[in-house]
């Protein structure tokens, strides 16, 4: 099975699974989405705040795909975190995607506990009504996860957080997983910054004949963390899902686990 075909369990759902890799759509356009769709990305991560939901639908159509052919995620923005706001944002997202049901709906950023809970309760109702297949959160720390759990029995399926080899968030990954929540990594390439120039990643990439971006994404894949890399460049879009011709051995995984190094980056 290829990386693009691999799915990980989506906890706290009726046996749903989430593709191991998706295309991040922050600051990308319809042309990039179409390139990603043609390259075989099985999932597309959007958000009300990104204003890219229509670009996702349009890009998929350009590639000859229906929105229901791919796993679609979107997020509730801060200004919509009331019962009314969530319902209205959700309906706008379904219109933008041209779907009745959204695969995964997340709270984009935590706000005050009462606001998180009001938002979450409304998302629970959308879940119960079958309008979303799974609900989760983004950018939540352990205390915020606990505050949510104190007011609701519905455990988030996902905590989507910024995570890459130079920002590994080990405690938060563990705290999320201990609570039965799966982790998705956004900015898995460190937004194209120092990660891609890191000497250890570069050495591993050279040994394997791949790029540092591919090493970073393969490391996440082997840790069973979903990643959603972004690119507007067709070659890099293809490169970021071309992760099957190599694997990281235990020593290479451990070397990346030991990053970042003191006094560097
Ligand atoms: P570009 O769109 O020119 O490819 P992240 O997903 O961590 O947020 O990173 C996105 C950034 O990384 C973008 O600036 C993107 O630029 C760049 N990028 C994406 N894929 C690669 C790659 N394979 N090699 C180098 N830079 C990349």
Tell me about this structure.
The protein has 265 residues and is α/β, with parallel strands linked by helices. It has one domain (7-189, 225-230): NADP-dependent oxidoreductase domain (TIM Barrel, Alpha-Beta Barrel). It has helices at 30-39, 53-62, 83-97, 113-128, 142-151, 170-178, 199-208, 212-222, 234-239, 250-257, and strands at 7-9, 17-19, 23-24, 43-45, 71-76, 102-107, 132-138, 158-162, 182-186, 226-227. An eight-stranded parallel beta sheet has the order 3-4-5-6-7-8-9-10. It has a two-stranded antiparallel sheet with strand order 1-2. Helix 4 links the parallel strand 6 (102-107) and strand 7. The protein is globular. The mean pLDDT is 97. Bound molecules: adenosine-2'-5'-diphosphate (A2P). The site of adenosine-2'-5'-diphosphate has 18 residues, from helix 9. This is Aldo/keto reductase. Residues 21-259 form the NADP-dependent oxidoreductase domain. Belongs to the aldo/keto reductase family. InterPro entries: AKR (IPR020471), Aldo/ket_reductase_CS (IPR018170), NAD(P)_OxRdtase_dom_sf (IPR036812), NADP_OxRdtase_dom (IPR023210). It comes from Frondihabitans cladoniiphilus.
Quick structural summary:
With 265 residues, the chain is an alpha/beta fold. The chain contains 10 helices and 10 strands.
Ligands = adenosine-2'-5'-diphosphate
Based on Cα principal axes, name the global outline. globular
Please state the average pLDDT score.
97
What is the ordering of alpha helices and beta strands? Answer: EEEHEHEHEHEHEHEHHEHH
- Poorly predicted tracts of residues: none
Biggest sheet layout: 8 strands, parallel
Q: Helices and strands: which structural class? A: alpha/beta
CATH level-3 fold name: TIM Barrel
Question: Beta fraction of the residues?
Answer: 15-25%
Q: What's the CATH superfamily, by name?
A: NADP-dependent oxidoreductase domain
Radius of gyration: 18 Å
In the CATH scheme, the class would be Alpha Beta
Q: Count every helix, treating DSSP H or I runs of 4 or more residues as helices.
A: 10
How many strand units?
Answer: 10
With strands numbered from the N-terminus, the spatial order across the biggest sheet is 3-4-5-6-7-8-9-10
CATH architecture, please?
A: Alpha-Beta Barrel
Number of domains: 1
| N/C terminus separation | 35 Å
Helix content: 25-40%
């Amino acid at each position: 099975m290829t990386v693009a075909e691999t799915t990980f369990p989506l906890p706290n759902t009726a046996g749903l699974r989430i593709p191991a890799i998706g295309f991040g759509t922050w600051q990308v356009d319809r042309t990039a989405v179409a390139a990603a769709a043609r390259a075989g990305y099985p999932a597309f991560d959007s958000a009300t705040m990104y204003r890219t939901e229509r670009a996702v639908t349009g890009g998929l159509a350009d590639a000859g795909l229906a929105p229901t052919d791919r796993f679609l995620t979107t997020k509730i923005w801060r200004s919509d975190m009331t019962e009314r706001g969530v319902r209205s944002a959700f309906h706008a997202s379904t219109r933008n995607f041209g779907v009745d049901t959204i695969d995964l709906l997340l709270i984009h950023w935590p706000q005050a506990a009462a606001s998180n809970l009001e938002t979450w309760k409304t998302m629970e109702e959308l879940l119960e009504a079958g309008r979303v297949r799974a609900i989760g959160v983004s950018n939540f720390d352990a205390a915020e996860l606990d505050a949510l759990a104190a007011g609701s029995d519905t455990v988030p399926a996902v905590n989507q957080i910024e995570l890459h080899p130079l920002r590994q968030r080990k405690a938060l990954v563990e705290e999320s997983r201990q609570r039965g929540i799966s982790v998705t990594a956004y900015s898995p390439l460190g937004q194209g910054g120092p990660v891609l120039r890191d000497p250890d990643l570069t050495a591993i990439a050279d040994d394997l004949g791949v790029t540092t971006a591919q090493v970073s994404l393969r490391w996440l894949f082997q840790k069973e963390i979903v990643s959603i890399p972004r690119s507007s460049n067709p070659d890099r879009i293809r490169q970021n899902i071309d992760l099957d011709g190599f694997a990281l051995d235990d020593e290479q995984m451990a070397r990346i686990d030991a990053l970042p190094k003191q006094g560097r980056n």
